[in-house]
Amino acid sequence: MLKKIIALKNKKVIIFIIIIFFILLLNHHYGWSDYLGNTHNLDFLKEMVQNNLLQAALIYMIITVISCVVLALPGITFAVFAGILFGPWFGIIFCLFATTMGASIAFLVGRFFLKDAIKPLIEKNKYLKKLLFDESGKSDMILLMITRLVPLFPYNLQNFAYGITDIGFWKYTNYTFLFMLPGVTFITIGAAGITAQSNKWVYFTISGVLFVAVFLFGYILQRKYLGSAPK
What we know:
Number of helices: 10
Shape: globular
Low-confidence stretches: 1-9
Number of domains: 1
Distance between the termini: 37 Å
Structural class: mainly alpha
Radius of gyration: 19 Å
Helix content: over 70%
Number of strands: 0
């Protein structure tokens, strides 16, 4: 029985590696990730936004979803590029849906493929370990509110980490969407201000006010639920 379990786990890891290899192979052939790392491609996408908004949004969302699962990019990256490419309002919408989809797929990967590999990484993050494994009885909503609003948890790691918890997929997805909204909003609006042709101060002011509000609320959550750094 034990051998069967080990064999099943090994098969899952092998399947996941094959999927990642296939994605990287396609990325190498089509150059998806280059779009967000090359200024010429950014200019191309910005021009595409003017001519075909849906196509540009689709490319952005595909790259974002893949990056959430395969690449260890900071979560702020996706909101910055969304603001630059699409402006504040479309940027918020596209970024929020893309990062939620990416986080949800990473959740499934963590649950079905990388359960044994993720737990040791979580245990190295003392805050995430305390939240997920201290059996304090915190609700799923509180857990996701803290991890999404308090900037102490690596975005990609927490996406995989929730896969090894007992939280349901749809509850995780809905709360992720809800609690990523404040951070995505102030980052996207601030990034949009960088390339705005006029009234930059309006973008930066709104972004700044939202940042202070999110920071203060996150600080309150940290003090209430995390306290001092766990040993």
